[in-house]
Write a structure and sequence with these properties.
Order of helices and strands: EEHHEEHHHHHHHEEHEHEEEE
Shape: globular
Number of strands: 11
Structural class: alpha+beta
Number of helices: 11
Distance between the termini: 19 Å
Largest sheet: 4 strands, antiparallel
Strand content: 5-15%
Strand order of the largest sheet: 8-9-10-11
């Protein structure tokens, strides 16, 4: 069994779309055949499109004319067909198509939003349910981009932020909450709840100074704000004041960084794990029969139980990187997505026979 856990001080970074200056230049006629000299700085080419730009112009014209059904359809076409494109929002500046279109729709009056939601709420619900079942932060963020202004937008954002927090991806969680407050049509309706989330995220990042600044803005909080924490409504200020120094102390005291694989040349080093409050994210029953087939595994066979009891699998060492956790026994290699524990791929010994390899000899996978 492989169990993957997270703790407050594990931080990942996910870049969200922002406006950046990009220079566009025409390709020379023989560009595909010309190889630049080594060390040459190449030009950047903008992933824009005349067709997409024309659709954006028509969307804006429909908005001015208050033709909300036509405008909603054009917005949907842009989000479905040109989501990866960039669009110019000022001379020499570009932003993502999803951000640009959602910004236009978010500014519509109630009649416009009603027409938009009438067309896309049903699709938003289905996409949201599928993404939630995957337990994949990236999948939820893509659904949020596509259906940000629908009636499901806030619920999608809430689930994405919560899953990002559980996965230790505090930067992504903070970005989602700030985006709701800044851009969602109803972002101001429950400002205190979203602001409280940001305060908790800042505390989990161990940022005392920024947490204090966030809490001192009186317009964000009225009275004695609370936040849903560990199944209970908890006063916000005492919670973040306790969390932030605790997380910082854990980070500063973490000395389990080994300069060599398994700690030293003898591969027998032991390190202290400083986190005493871990939350399991997923479990993969690697040694149950059928686990490598990507199906619900059966209970371990007698042979597998004997292999486990003999200590053969104690030689297994996990390797993590690039969003994957890779493991091998003497017969197989498999890769798991680190956020979900789902099987990405596996490799089997050619003859499908069980190896008798032990820690003392033989060839492994």
């Amino acid at each position: 069994m492989i169990t993957h856990c997270t703790a407050p001080c594990v931080t990942l970074t996910l870049a969200l779309a922002v406006s950046v200056p990009v220079r566009a230049q025409q390709l020379p006629p023989n560009a595909a055949e010309t190889q630049p000299p080594p060390g040459t700085v190449q030009d950047a080419f903008v992933n824009d499109s005349f067709e997409a730009r024309e659709l954006v112009d028509r969307l804006k014209a429909d908005t001015v004319a208050a033709d909300w059904v036509s405008a909603a359809r054009r917005a949907g076409d842009l989000l479905d067909q040109h989501a990866v494109r960039l669009v110019s929002d000022a001379p020499g500046r570009y932003e993502s198509m999803t951000h640009h279109v959602n910004g236009i729709v978010a500014d519509w009056p109630r009649h416009g939003l009603t027409a938009y939601r009438g067309l896309f709420d049903e699709s938003a619900e289905k996409a949201f349910q599928d993404a939630v079942r995957s337990h994949d932060v990236d999948a939820l963020l893509l659904v949020l981009d596509r259906y940000f202004c629908t009636s499901w937008g806030l619920r999608i954002a809430e689930s994405a932020a919560e899953l990002a927090i559980e996965s230790g991806d505090f930067a992504a969680a903070q970005g989602v909450c700030e985006r709701v407050l800044r851009e969602h049509p109803e972002g101001d309706a429950d400002k205190q709840r979203w602001s409280a989330r940001i305060a908790v995220i800042l505390a989990l990042r161990g940022d005392d100074e920024e947490t204090g600044r966030w809490l001192t803005h009186e317009e964000r909080f009225d009275g004695h704000p609370t936040v849903h924490w560990s199944g209970h409504e908890t006063p916000l200020v005492p919670l973040v004041q306790a969390l932030s120094p605790h997380v910082r102390a854990l980070r500063e005291n973490n000395t389990a960084d080994w300069p060599a694989f398994a700690g030293n040349s003898a591969r027998n080093a032991a390190g202290e794990f400083v986190f005493d409050q871990l939350a399991p994210l997923w479990r993969f029953d690697a040694f149950a029969d059928g686990a490598l087939d990507g199906v619900t595994p059966e209970p371990p066979s007698i042979a597998t139980i004997h292999a486990i009891e003999s200590g053969r699998f104690l030689t297994l060492n996990l390797v993590a990187g690039n969003g994957m956790i890779l493991a091998q026994d003497a017969d197989n290699i498999w890769a798991l997505h680190d956020h979900t524990g789902t099987l990405a791929w596996d490799y089997r010994d050619g003859d499908n026979s069980e190896s008798r390899t032990t820690a003392g000899g033989g060839s492994g996978a």
